[in-house]
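wait is this the right file?? whatever heres the structure
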């Protein structure tokens, strides 16, 4: 219970006793001037009856319902005692003023106004010289004071009502703020959980992406180098000329050294070694020449448009796609001629690899590719990783053309 509530409880419980005691003392002090002997005896009896009534109410009050019949009866009888005492001695109005304080607590809203007006009658009678008014002047004073008392009471009631409404509004606002704070705390906890979940997902995605990157790099470098080494060693084994066989062995050794270097660069997440010292057109030209010499297939390289320095990731993507397309042509196409074109356009750059080999049906993709192989699917994934596109055109017996088109992102 707050301090204000304790004070209200004290005034409700002990206020009537205090006012009755003060009113009795003051009235007794002036009794000889305003009361006869018989009136004194009646007043003494009324004071005793009022005190008993107050004690009876004290026993009933804890169980009485708010604005119930018990409160109405108590208020009406107490008002009657106060009115009678004020009629006998105007100073008993000190006790009658209690009606202003607890009428709204004891009575319903409609009856509270009646109780306030009735209390105003008693107070106006006391202030105008006593009840009943004697003469026209006293009546005029009584009416005027009654109007003033009623006006002040209604004003105070309105102010108190407004104060109660403001208090309820503040309480409602505080309750809404508490609910909003609770929702904010809940949202904060949910956001913290989502943040932790996103961190886990980002970590898992990073691990998965790194695995895919290494798998693609191994396929594009080590696997292709090993395939070339096997081809050269097989050719050396099948050759009867020692000089020719030695040449195949030397090319196999060169492929092994190159594959080892590419493997190290892949682990370190570096770009292809072919781009370390050369721009993309030069690196592609050398790649095409080396592949042609190794595969024994005629290959041509063409550059169209204005050559520009591209971002490292763009150049690496196009080079890797071209290398994979050439490797596929050497392994599967059985081609006699291959053409590679690097095209620089206004906002895009593309690499196209065409061969005159046996071709295939693009819609009947090998099960290994659908299961996550690194041939056609790997080339498409590389292009899409840099917001590019990858297309295949092929028919059985009509050769194959692959095209990777990516945004032209210039070197910073």
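ok assuming it is, sequence goes like this
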């Amino acid at each position: 219970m707050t301090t204000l509530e304790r004070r209200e409880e004290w005034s409700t419980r002990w206020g009537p006793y205090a006012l009755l005691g003060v009113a009795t003392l003051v009235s007794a002090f002036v009794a000889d001037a305003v009361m006869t002997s018989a009136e004194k005896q009646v007043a003494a009896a009324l004071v005793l009856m009022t005190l008993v009534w107050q004690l009876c109410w004290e026993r009933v009050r804890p169980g009485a319902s708010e604005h119930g019949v018990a409160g109405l009866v108590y208020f009406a009888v107490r008002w009657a005692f106060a009115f009678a005492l004020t009629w006998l001695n105007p100073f008993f109005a000190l006790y009658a003023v209690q009606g202003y304080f607890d009428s709204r607590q004891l009575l319903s809203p409609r009856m509270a106004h009646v109780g306030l007006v009735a209390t105003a009658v008693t107070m106006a009678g006391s202030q105008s010289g006593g009840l009943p008014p004697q003469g026209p002047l006293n009546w005029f004073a009584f009416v005027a004071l009654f109007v003033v008392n009623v006006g002040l009471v209604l004003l105070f009631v309105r102010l108190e009502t407004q104060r109660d409404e403001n208090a309820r509004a503040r309480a409602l606002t505080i309750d809404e703020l508490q609910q909003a704070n609770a929702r904010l705390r809940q949202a904060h906890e949910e956001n913290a959980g989502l943040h932790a979940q996103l961190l886990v997902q980002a970590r898992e995605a990073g691990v998965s992406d790194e695995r895919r990157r290494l798998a693609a790099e191994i396929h594009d470098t080590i696997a292709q180098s090993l395939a070339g080494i096997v081809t050269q060693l097989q050719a050396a084994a099948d050759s009867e000329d020692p000089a020719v066989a030695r040449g195949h062995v030397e090319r196999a050794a060169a492929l092994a050294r190159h594959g080892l270097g590419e493997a190290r660069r892949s682990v370190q997440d570096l770009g292809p070694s072919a781009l370390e010292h050369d721009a993309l057109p030069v690196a592609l030209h050398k790649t095409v020449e080396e592949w042609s010499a190794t595969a024994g297939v005629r290959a041509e390289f063409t550059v169209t448009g204005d050559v520009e320095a591209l971002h490292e990731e763009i150049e690496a993507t196009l080079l890797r796609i071209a290398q994979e397309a050439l490797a596929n042509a050497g392994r599967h196409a059985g081609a006699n001629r291959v053409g590679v074109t690097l095209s620089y356009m206004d906002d895009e750059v593309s690499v196209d690899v065409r061969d005159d080999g046996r071709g295939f049906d693009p819609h009947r993709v090998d099960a290994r590719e659908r299961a996550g192989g690194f041939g056609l699917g790997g080339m498409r994934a590389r292009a899409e990783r840099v917001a590019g596109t990858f297309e295949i055109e092929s028919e059985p017996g009509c050769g194959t053309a692959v095209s990777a088109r990516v945004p032209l992102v210039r070197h910073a």
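The beta strands are 298-304, 337-344, 348-355, 389-394, 400-407. so i think its the right one actually
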